[in-house]
Fold each of these.
Amino acid sequence: MPNAADQRSKSLWMDVDVVPEAPPLGSDRRCDTIIIGSGIAGISTAYELAIEGQQVMIIDRGQIAGGITARTTAHLAPLCDDLTAEMIKLRGEDISRLFYESQVTALDRIEEIQKRENIDCDFRRLDGYLFQAPGTDSKIIDDELDAVRKVGAPVHRLVGVPLAHCDKQHALRYPRQATFHPLKYLKGLAEAITAKGGTFYPHITVQGIQEFDGGPVVVATDHGSVTAKAAVVATNSPIIDRFALHTKMSPYRTYAMAFSIARGALPDALYWDTLDPYHYVRLQPGEGRTDYLIVGGADHKSGEADDAEARFEGLEAWARNLIPAAKDVTHRWSGQVLDTIDYAAFIGRNPGNTNVYVHTGDSGQGMTHGVVGSLINSALILGSDTKWQEVYEPTRKTAAAIGNYLRENLTAVQNFAEYLAPGELGSLDELKPGHGAIVRAGLTKIAAYRDSEGALHARSAACTHVGCHLHWNSFEVCWDCPCHGSQFAVDGTALNAPAISPLAEVKTPK
Ligand SMILES: Cc1cc2nc3c(=O)[nH]c(=O)nc-3n(C[C@H](O)[C@H](O)[C@H](O)COP(=O)(O)OP(=O)(O)OC[C@H]3O[C@@H](n4cnc5c(N)ncnc54)[C@H](O)[C@@H]3O)c2cc1C
Ligand code: FES
């Protein structure tokens, strides 16, 4: 059977190896700041600290930048992707304005860094179009226009966008959005960090973090421990939290696909519609006269659907209708975003710690959120302040978001009831090659997969984070946890945080 990681989908970016050669963890196990997780959030934070003279170590349990960042579509769009009008309802105008300003600063910072470090990453500024989805009311465009003006964003109201059948659609045009190749950018950033003495350690799993009376932080890994003055947990979904942050956000699976398209067939811009979930579109330079058209959307709560083929069919039909120049499908992939109940990420001191910092809750704009996080957490570590802390404070409680809180946490309550339900199959003998299913064995639920050669892979169906019941994901060939976003390979290996440990072994009935 191919290894667990090989069975998952591949994005358009994944042929770039961000840190091809990394040393093993040696005997020098001290640094100023240890960064756990090497996505956009972790690497950007390491960069901000390294240029200030800090000795940084970056540890990842997979390959460097092989997590959700390798699955992004990298629209760099600073307005709240759940709509600014919605954000103002929950958090008011002042916080929404600060949110917008922080996201703009993050985008400017990416532009500045790629220039300063000479990173060839296809970065470009372009327009973004939010357009009225066919069959919907244009009021949403008017409401959003009012809202984005309140937060001070430049915006133009228009009718018609350069997509087929959209000449009468109401739309907003936002100037100075941007996009890039995410892994080429992170490769350049990693080289700059290495040149400043920072070190990357892939394939090392962090198992726990201990802080001694506001003093040093000791990070336990499966290759021994590391001591640092500070630690940043940038594992996408935080590995150090069981409830405090996880109950304020939910994992959603989102799908993306790339088509080939003749260069110039579509104006180079970002496009997204007003549906919930929304469709999103961008271009990426290809070879010769051919570019890539990237289309995404069709989100659902993680683990609540296993119908990727139907979702890709829907996305493809949507894309071909609006962009008839789309040619062959070249890539199809999926990944997760963590939607917080009030739309902003959680960034800052980890609740209850002094020298442990956290970054999580990307809410579909994790690329700019990752960079905002790098600016806030590096400032806190270096002893200064930013005016955005209140927006992203991890301990915040947003009273107006109580409805979202209750709705999102219903998943966990309903999930535990699944332990009482019968299995999806009567017995393991019914499991066909290439399929996964939950099978009951007495009081135990088994997450079972039969590979193409007929061998059975059976593990406990209880997530090792806080025990939620797993669901099969046939597209990514893995087990998804609907509660907080963990994923496990069919051999039980934890692929996505917050889970650290593999699924427990089980005895299969004879
Ligand atoms: C299909 C798709 C489209 C998207 N489109 C956009 C977009 O257009 N614009 C936008 O802004 N955002 C977008 N996002 C969101 C954005 O890509 C993510 O929010 C962002 O990349 C997350 O970065 P991160 O650094 O937080 O996490 P990651 O990139 O996942 O990095 C976390 C790292 O932590 C490591 N880790 C986990 N546990 C441990 C452990 N115990 N020990 C050591 N290491 C560990 C993981 O291996 C991983 O490499 C999209 C996401 C998807 C899936
Ligand atoms: S991710 Fe929290 S219980 Fe599974």
Amino acid sequence: MTASPGTFEAAAPWETEWPREQLEPVPRCAVCGSSERTTLYEGLTDRIFRVAPGTWTLWRCAGCGAAFLDPRPTLGGIGLAYRCYYTHDASRARHVFSEGTGVGLLLRRLRLFAYYDDAFGYALRPAAPGAAFLTRWSAARRARADHLIRHLPAPSGRARLLDVGCGNGDFLRIGRALGFDVVGLDLDEVAAARARASGLAVHVGTLDDVALEPGTFEHVTLSHVLEHVHDPVGALRRVHALLRPGGRVWIQTPNVEAEGLRRFGPDWRGLEPPRHLTLFGPESLRRALGAVGFERIALLPPRREAAFYVAQSLMVRRGASVDRSGRAPRARIGAEARRMDRAALRCPERGESLTAVAWRPEA
Ligand SMILES: [Zn+2]
């Protein structure tokens, strides 16, 4: 950007350079350790939220298929990528676990709670009696219901659940309503304070520095966390240690094998440089989980999500600003998004995001 004489026009943050001393080289894949790689995209900038400086190169690991930034922001400097990123809006999530009355919500509760009782072993109330007819739901509808509770089976007795990257605590509230003893972890102090205000136990920090007792959690969930951390395999190792033998991890992360990436390339919403340091594919996610000792690793059918990725990728392509709340403007994307969602339901390896569960072996 050039300044005309007599005026000074500051460049937008995302058009400036990332401070050199806060960059580090990544000579090996953070997932499998291979140094063999090919360039996936060069010249990437933060066109999503337009807050992070820097121009980035994304590489594809030849060993496991993961993609990663090299160079990337250092751990000490990464905060620069999150300036003005957190919005701290009060939760707008509206679902059957939200507070509220009204006939529509009650009817949805009756049906959905009956489904959870039937499919996941809960005894939620109020639930409609006799849920056999509910099994006739479409796969898409079941996936949507299953994702709302992150596929959590009913706890048998006292069971602890840790949500890593819990934000305002939206999912912690659902876990609590399902009968779990919930604990949250987040880097963002303001979000943590909001969660605490509704009586939730939330630690501020990372898996590296938080004091949690190993071997005490039945479930650990990480929704869109793993792609942000510098050492994803190390993070999974710590999750494994926090779980009780027989405990389960649930992970959701953008899929570098997504149909949307094929279609939108460097404009794909899931890339989000430089906040996304490592992007997994099905193979690399399985490898990372297996490397730290998880077993029974399974990919789950995604919920309907293509409309979000398509709408936001189109906005990035057109140079429009993306609303931080994640809502996209109405766009004529319906038919294509539905086709992508149907394909991903048949084959979770093709989803815009990957959802995986895995278990720590019984002792
Ligand atoms: Zn690799």
